[in-house]
Amino acid sequence: MKQIIADSSLVAACGLYCGACKAYLKNKCPGCEKNIKATWCKPKKCCKENDYATCAACTKTDSIDDCKEFNSFVAKIFSLIFRSDRKACIERIKEIGVENFAVEMADKKMQTIKN
After folding, report:
1. How far apart are CA 111 and CA 22, in angstroms?
2. How far is it, in rounded angstroms, from Cα 52 to Cα 10?
3. Are 94 and 60 in contact (CB under 8 A)?
């Protein structure tokens, strides 16, 4: 099993930290950025199209609450299943940057800020 390390490339477009995800750590997933099967992920697609590392860099809306890609039905299901607060993750990335967010999440051994 992989060790949890700080790696900004493992911060998903939606703010989740793949570097602490059980599937990633068990080599069952390459991480959101490299997961070519995740074509259903609207935040990932939007970030790629707009050359954003994460939704924290978005300038298309005033608030993440207004983004239909970020707040899709699938995203709401993920939030319930993982008890994740992706909005809090995005806000934290805005505050401290992607690299520091990766360090913080790796240090806490957390995939997401919990709601």
Report:
1. 9
2. 14
3. no
Cα angle: 102, vertex 108, 112; to 5 degrees: 65
Which single residue is written with the structure tokens 């490339």? Answer: 9
Burial of 11 (0-12, 13-18, 19+ CB in 10 A): buried
Q: How far is CA 67 from the centre of its chain?
A: 15
pLDDT range class, residue 75, cuts 50, 70, 90? confident
Q: Tokens in use for 33?
A: 């950025």
Using alpha carbons, list the distances in angstroms from residue 102 to 5, 7, 16, 60.
Answer: 8, 6, 10, 24
Q: CA 38, CA 33: separation in Å to the nearest integer? A: 9
Average pLDDT of the segment spanning 62-79: 89
